[in-house]
Amino acid sequence: DTGVSQDPRHKITKRGQNVTFRCDPISEHNRLYWYRQTLGQGPEFLTYFQNEAQLEKSRLLSDRFSAERPKGSFSTLEIQRTEQGDSAMYLCASSFRGNNEQFFGPGTRLTVL
Amino acid sequence: AQSVTQPDIHITVSEGASLELRCNYSYGATPYLFWYVQSPGQGLQLLLKYFSGDTLVQGIKGFEAEFKRSQSSFNLRKPSVHWSDAAEYFCAVGSGNTDKLIFGTGTRLQVFP
Questions:
Q1: Do the Cβ atoms of B36 and A91 come within 8 Å?
Q2: How does pLDDT run across A35-68, given as a tens digit for each residue?
Q3: Residue A87: CB partners within 8 Å, gap ≥ 6?
């Protein structure tokens, strides 16, 4: 069990560019979550997958954001036409249905210039 | 709507002193409650959780928390703080069938030698 991994750990991009982040959950976990954390705040829920199905999206997830989990394993989060307000730490977590305990990855810190 | 309040933004204690971090929640049903710790540049690590049963729960690193339904509180305690406990602490409630987490804004703990 290597834990939840995220790639890249840091991303600096210019406003208007597209970025994609990857999350690899713990292998037997069927639930995967994305959160966003800005400075001085707690993480905020963005979206959730059970296996490959995206079952809930927050209103925080604008049309510029899209997430996928094509085979029910790893997940990607894409932000199109990035804005400075997208600068944040993007956290991924996974859990096993019925366990309720989420394990977090180290996060991807996005800086939009 | 579900919410979590951590009234103390920043707490400073001396090493060896006792610690209590406050957490109040708003949730319509029996809550699932969690405390996470986040060190600089690190992901979130679960300290302890409450699902049901004994209202005093023990966690890792010598932490404990007590669930008080009448006060809608889930305060975190440690009898003797170590310098390595300096970090950001987040209280969270698990929400709905998805078990997405709703976090408080966090309490930053500083420990003086």
A1: no
A2: 999 998 999 999 999 999 999 999 888 999 999 9
A3: A38, A110, A111, A112
